[in-house]
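Reopening this one. Same input as before:
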Amino acid sequence: MNNKNALIGVAILLVLAVIGWGWYGGKDPALAELEKLRDEQFARRNEVTEEEQKAGRQAFGEKMKGLSEEQRRSFFESSAPFFMKMMEARLDQFLALTPEEQKKELDKKIDESLARQKNGGGPTAGGGPGGGRPGGGPPTPQKVDEFRKKMLDWTTPEQRAKFQTTMQMYNDRMKQRGLDPKAGGGGGRFF
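Same output, byte for byte:
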């Protein structure tokens, strides 16, 4: 009788453990698929052309459209280390250019950003949390503050310094062209 009760107790514990794992430890299938795709694209990032990268981003964006706000936030947070590495690599490439090449690249990025705005895309079209909530409207000051704090956690002081330097160069170039950096054209997909 004691063995029977012990067996029933163990069976109940196992069932509860499986339910608990499924409830708390199971991965959201939509997020798991996106994380796998992200990992694959990140691994191949140096092997594909700019056009292939753009197509990959667009396909990725389409998959993101079906996610809830909570799923998007979760995905973005799990992806932050990847995004920061990619951003730093792009910053390093840009900062390694000659001043004339940098000017040319800045002009190209400014023109692309202005074209997106002209086509109704806005300065941050397709570009992460700066674009506001999926339901529309700008993020609340509270959400902006939360995002800034997370960015401090996700980046090193060196990465932030590179980003600040590059954005200052971008804004200075906009001013040289007679454009107001605060009126839009704020980089979009620059990094």
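So the earlier flakiness isn't reproducible anymore. For the record, Confidence is low (pLDDT under 50) at residues 13-24, 123-134.
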